[in-house]
From TrEMBL:
Membrane topology of the entry: Multi-pass membrane protein
Biological source species: Paroceanicella profunda
Domain (ABC transmembrane type-1) ranges: 94-291
Protein name (Swiss-Prot/TrEMBL): ABC transporter permease
Keywords: Cell membrane, Membrane, Transmembrane, Transmembrane helix, Transport
Length: 311
């Protein structure tokens, strides 16, 4: 068991290192921070002084080694925009992001899992077709379109909710619903597929033949075995909470990490962008690691390599 978990942990650390490296290279090849921050009107001497002060005049490999050395010592850099520690700027925005992402995740599960189970139990009926039609519409519509449509209906037309800002909890309703509807649609489809596959297994027929009531077969045998694929998609969604908030926070002017990322990219504020990408990377890798560990506890065969990891 320990070997199983250590191998997953090592894979997670390698993944984070690759994410950091890719972000480092892409950010430095995507534009000159000196021009973005000082403006194109600044004199050449100002550009040279700025690059020298932030080490941007060094070869890329030297900057790369210095960056990893700084991370190893717990130094994630300063914001080029205001000189504050980049980590502090990001951590200030985390509570606001969690205020909409965690309720959205809960809404995903409260709607998506029952809807998927209900659709599977009523396969090829009007109920199943209606749930799947709504699900397809939900996960194919981009989040920015969904957000704009909800804002148009509930903020502009009906005037029930504010269209943006963060002054009250009512301002969080539209961002939460936008993320919740899309996520619920995805979970519903995965849950339905997992339930249908489980209901077709021989042990379900055996349990029914032994005289168990149908609801007992569902609760005792079908739901636990259909949980692993659903757990996979939920783990992925937990890992992508911050990344998924980027568009939604921008639409509704929500002052979270996602909106900070958009601003930092526009300003070429390298340290802030790198910290946010690190946060996203650690969140996704951490969630996947927890899911891998959950697989190991749910199905002991996975720890011994006798069963393939569920897709």
């Amino acid at each position: 068991m320990m070997r199983y978990f250590l191998s997953r942990l090592l894979r997670a650390l390698v993944t984070v290192a690759l994410i950091v490296s890719a972000a480092f290279v892409v950010l430095r090849l995507s534009g000159d921070p000196a021009i973005a921050i000082l403006g194109p009107e600044a004199p050449p001497e100002a550009f040279e002084a700025f690059r020298a002060a932030w080490g941007l005049d060094q070869p890329l490999w030297v900057q790369y080694l210095r960056y990893f050395s700084a991370i190893a010592h717990g130094d994630l850099g300063l914001s080029m925009r205001d000189g504050r520690p980049a980590l502090d700027l990001v951590l200030e925005r985390v509570p606001d992001t969690l205020l909409i992402t965690l309720p959205a995740l809960l809404l995903n599960m409260l709607i998506g899992i029952p809807a998927g189970i209900w659709a599977a139990l009523h396969r090829n009926t009007v109920i199943d077709r209606a749930i799947m039609t709504v699900s397809v519409m939900g996960f194919t519509v981009p989040s920015f379109v969904m957000g704009l449509v909800l804002a148009l209906i509930f903020a502009v037309r009906l005037r029930w909710l504010p269209s943006g800002g963060s002054d009250t909890l009512w301002h969080a309703v539209l961002p939460i619903v936008t993320m919740g509807v899309i996520g619920a649609a995805v979970i519903a489809r995965f849950t339905r597929s997992a339930m249908l596959e489980t209901l077709g297994q021989p042990y379900i027929r055996t349990a029914s033949a032994k005289g168990l009531l149908w609801h007992q077969v569902i609760i005792r045998h079908a739901l636990p075995n259909a949980a692993i694929p659903t757990l996979t998609i939920i783990g992925f969604m937990v890992g992508s909470l911050v990344a998924g908030a980027v568009v939604v926070e921008s639409i509704f002017s929500w002052p979270g990490v996602g909106r900070l990322l958009v601003t930092a990219v526009a300003n070429r504020d390298l340290a802030v962008v790198q910290v946010i990408l690190l946060l996203i990377g650690f969140t996704m890798v951490g969630a996947n690691l927890v899911v891998d560990m959950a697989y190991g506890w749910v199905d002991p065969r996975l720890r011994t390599g006798r069963a393939a990891k569920p897709a």
